[in-house]
Design goal:
It is a single chain. This protein is of the alpha/beta class. Helices cover 36% and strands 18% of the residues. Strands 1-4-2-3 form a 4-stranded parallel sheet, with helices on one face. Helix 3 links the parallel strand 2 and strand 3.
């Protein structure tokens, strides 16, 4: 995997959390191939998610998780706790 980025708040990708962070993510997403992974429950995902995001609940991420290792991966949840766990799991699996 090129890079794994844990997004603490879903709003960061939707509207940005400030003038300094939104351009960074926008530029990164325009320049690189990426995958957005929603690590919330299926119920949370179906109630609303970022367009194009795939749902893989954080506790389901393991060595069998099929993600393009050449893409930058954004993981997000509601508060950041689950995305941090998913980030750590993916980081361990890529090494």
């Amino acid at each position: 995997m090129k890079r794994i980025i844990s997004v603490i708040f879903m709003s960061l990708l939707l509207v940005g959390c400030g003038k300094n962070t939104q351009p960074y993510y926008k530029e990164l997403m325009e320049k690189e191939k990426f995958t957005i992974v929603d690590v919330r429950t299926i119920e949370e995902y179906t109630s609303g998610h970022i367009k194009g995001a795939v749902n893989i609940p954080y506790e389901s991420i393991d060595e069998n998780t099929n993600l393009d290792k050449e893409n930058t991966i954004f993981v997000y949840c509601k508060s950041g706790r689950r995305s941090k766990i998913a980030y750590n799991t993916l980081d361990i699996l890529r090494n």
